[in-house]
Amino acid sequence: MFDASLRKYIDPPTNRVASWFVGKGISADQITLVGFFVGLMAVPALWLGYPLLALGFIAVNRCADGLDGAVARQTKPTDRGGFLDICLDFFFYSAIPFGFALMDPAQNALAACFLIFSFIGTGASFLAYAIFAEKRGISTDLRGQKSLYYLGGLTEGFETIVFLVLACLFPSAFWWMAIVFGGLAWITAATRVVAGWRMFR
Question: CA 84 to CA 175: how far, in whole Å?
Answer without folding.
Answer: 30
